[in-house]
Amino acid sequence: MSQSEEKIPSRNPVIQFDLLKCYFGEPYIIDVEDADGTITIYSPTFGDLIEYGETKWYQNLSIFIGNTTSYRLPLHKMGIDWNEISDFELFVMLYKQVEPKFSELLFHFDISKFELFVREVEEGEEIKKIPVLYDEENSIEINEMVYFHISQYLRTCFRSEPKEQITHDPFLKPLYIQKDESDIRNAEWRKENKGEREHSLLPIISACVNHPGFKWRTDELKSVPMFQFMDSVARLQIYESTKALLVGANSGMADHSKTNPELFNFMREV
User: Fold this and answer.
1) Total domain count, the chain
2) 91-105, 144-158, 237-251: the lowest-pLDDT one
3) Based on the domain organization, do 143 and 84 belong to the same domain?
4) Which of 194, 208, 227, 242 has the most other CB atoms within 10 Å of its CB?
5) Does the model's pTM come out above 0.90?
């Protein structure tokens, strides 16, 4: 972060999940008090992703887990300041692009069939107009809080927390846009000249299944919940880094007197 960059806290509430249920692939039920109906997110497995297709999977997933910073360049081209709209307002702009099959895998319903309504809520002497998505056939509502549950659960499941850069500095705004344009050009060049893809789980899978500490065979991975797999990837990295620290400390080749003792515990929180 540059010295001139503003440190603005996240605009969204933090929602806590039962990570043990996430790990074992239990469905997550969203029951928000001020929203009609309940929504269940069914934990996706590796097999779901493989069958659907990795590229299409992440394209659809990005609609749920992305934020206004993730989409600031396309928003800028539409004449919209990414700092002035909420993540939910962005989702309302994009949700019709979610493919029915992807939505069916996650929720067992087609989210593109929801329609946008405006709810009027009294706040003191003022009447505030709040956008909501509603499925009249099944009486299910997605308001901003329900969206927060969906987006944060999927970010947790896939260990993907998008960077949030909100600024009111007129000098920083064009710099961020220029950086995004440069990143896209570089990504396109790497794709054309080196064949790199934006998302590729293959190197991660290959590294894991060839690691002596990885417990699943290739033919077993399809039934593994995505959260459990991503947790295993992070755990193997922690294990290897911890082992390297211990070897260095015991050999006398490195001074770890100022190293955080928690880093020597490979069973620490991921």
Assistant:
1) 2
2) 237-251
3) yes
4) 227
5) no
pLDDT at position 90: 96
Amino acid residing at 53: G
Angstrom distance (rounded) from CA 139 to CA 133: 11
CA–CA separation, 74 and 161 (whole Å): 20
Round to whole Å and give the CA distance between 220 and 165: 39
> Is the distance from CB of 75 to CB of 94 less than 8 angstroms?
no
Amino acid of residue 131: P
Measured distance CA(37)–CA(78) in Å, rounded:
34
* Ramachandran sector of residue 99 (left: φ over 0; alpha: ψ -120 to 50; beta: rest): beta
What is the extent of the structural domain holding 219?
A: 202-264
**Over the stretch 55-66, which tens digit does the pLDDT of each residue have?**
999 999 999 999
Q: Which helix (H) or strand (E) holds 104?
A: helix 100-107
Angstrom distance (rounded) from CA 140 to CA 44: 21
Say whether both 239 and 159 belong to one domain.
no
Q: How many Cα atoms are found within 13 Å in the side-chain-facing hemisphere of 33?
A: 0
Place of tokens 């260095």: 248
Q: Of 138, 173, 194, which marks where a domain is finished?
A: 194
Beta-bridge partner residues of 141: 134
The span from the CA of 220 to the CA of 231, in Å, is 16
Token pair in block for residue 225: 């919940």
Count CA atoms closer than 13 A to 30's CA, side-chain side: 26
CB 198 within 8 A of CB 58: yes
Residues 173, 42 share a domain: yes
pLDDT of 91 over the 90 cut: yes
